[in-house]
Amino acid sequence: MAMTLTSPAFAEGERVPDRYTRFGENLMPPLKWSGAPEGARSFALIVEDPDAPRGTFRHCGMFNIPKDWSEVSRGVRMKSDGGVRFSRNDFGNTRYDGPQPPKGHGMHHYRFRIAALDVPELEMSDMADAESMWDEARKHMLSEASLTGTFDVH
């Protein structure tokens, strides 16, 4: 069975609700995944906007998600003292920061990607950015699933 990623907040290709953007409450939307392969020992998550004016913009990187998890709750915030960790996003924060496209820039697509990894944790610096974390995760990836939401500002 292929891995899948869903959210009760929005479906594939639908608009990300305002509360999950920097124009709203800036909460991480709830996410659920299933179909992880047998050998999965942890998960990593990245949220990217490939439509950003200067190229792909990373809104969140989360790693060392335990193998027995199958969801992330709305607004989740983790400490960076072991266990689940956030890498630095392109805003410079170690948390989720939601969509905030420039006004009049058109539709942006926000790709939420979850990866099942063959290691229990990634050894990453506290200053590691989301792109570096995902590059390291790819070396250990067993399976991946994605969910894309959209957002624009008129």
Give the topology, please.
Elements (H helix, E strand, L loop, with lengths): L3 E3 L24 E4 L7 E8 L7 E10 L4 E2 L12 E3 L20 E10 L12 H9 L2 E11 L3
Antiparallel strand pairs: 1-2, 2-5, 3-4, 3-7, 4-6, 7-8
Number of strands: 8
Mean pLDDT: 93
Sheet with most strands: strand arrangement: 6-4-3-7-8
Any idea what the radius of gyration is? 15 Å
Assign the structural class, choosing from mainly alpha, mainly beta, alpha/beta, alpha+beta, or little secondary structure.
Answer: mainly beta
User: How would you spell out the order of helices and strands?
Assistant: EEEEEEEHE
Major sheet summary line: 5 strands, antiparallel
| Tally of DSSP helical segments | 1
Strand content: 25-35%
> What ranges have pLDDT less than 50 throughout 5 or more consecutive residues?
none
> How would you name the oligomeric state of the polypeptide chains in this document?
single chain
Span between N and C termini?
A: 40 Å
Q: Percentage of helical residues?
A: under 10%
The general outline is globular
